[in-house]
Amino acid sequence: xxxxxxxxxxxxxxxxxxxxxxxxxxxxxxxxxxxxxxxxxxxxxxxxxxxxxxxxxxxxxxxxxxxx
Length: 68
Description:
Blueprint: H1 7-28, H2 37-67
Helix pairs in contact: 1-2
C-alpha cells in the first residue's frame, strides 16, 4: 500500500531530510571525522536536490492554500 502525502506534508518531511543532510555535512564534511571528498560531494549534491524539492513543495502547498 502506497501512502499519499499532501504538498505540505511532503515539504515537512523533505525539510527533515535537509536538516539531516546538513548535520551530516557539518559533522563529516571536514576535520578529524572528515569523509573522503567524493562522499562529501555526493552529499552536497543530494542536499541541493533536497533543498530544491523542499522549496518546490512549500510553494505548491502555498499555492494550494491560496486557491482554497
